[in-house]
Design a protein that fits this description.
The protein is of the alpha/beta class. It is 51% helix and 10% strand. The protein is elongated, with a radius of gyration of 20 Å.
Length: 133
């Protein structure tokens, strides 16, 4: 017990550094990073759905992405992706709307749906190509 009292500062530093090492592992479950998304698109033929508004989509989107605004996702997704086992990547500008879209897709039965963490901004930051219409 006296060891803990005498060395409380060292123990605190050890716990803090351990927490800092675990942080990336614990926070990773919030979506795909751009490299994982590309791998899923190439290997598993994932369908990319951009849930931005048409104006945002026209300004820039992932090549091959289909535009379905978030408000219309529930009605249009079953027509675009008929096989619910197909991987679906949901994208928006910053990753917020695609997170909401993910819950809609999962409610519809798309268990392989995932969100691109950070959205199109993270895609561009990773120097990935963007198409404009």
């Amino acid at each position: 017990m006296s060891f803990l009292i005498d060395n409380w500062m060292l123990i605190l530093i050890a716990l803090t550094s351990g927490g800092a090492l675990l942080w990336p592992v614990l926070s990773q479950g919030k979506g795909l990073n751009p490299a994982q998304a590309v791998q899923l698109m190439n290997r598993d033929k994932a369908v990319v759905i951009d849930v931005c508004e048409p104006g945002e989509y026209a300004a820039g989107h992932i090549a091959g992405a289909r535009n379905v605004p978030l408000a219309q996702l529930e009605s249009q997704l079953p027509g675009l992706v008929k096989n619910k086992a197909t991987p679906v990547i949901l994208v928006c500008q910053a990753g917020v709307r695609s997170g909401r879209a993910l819950s809609v897709a999962r409610k519809l039965g798309y268990e392989n749906a995932q969100s691109l963490a950070g959205g199109l901004k993270a895609w561009q930051a990773a120097s990935m190509p963007v198409s404009k219409t």
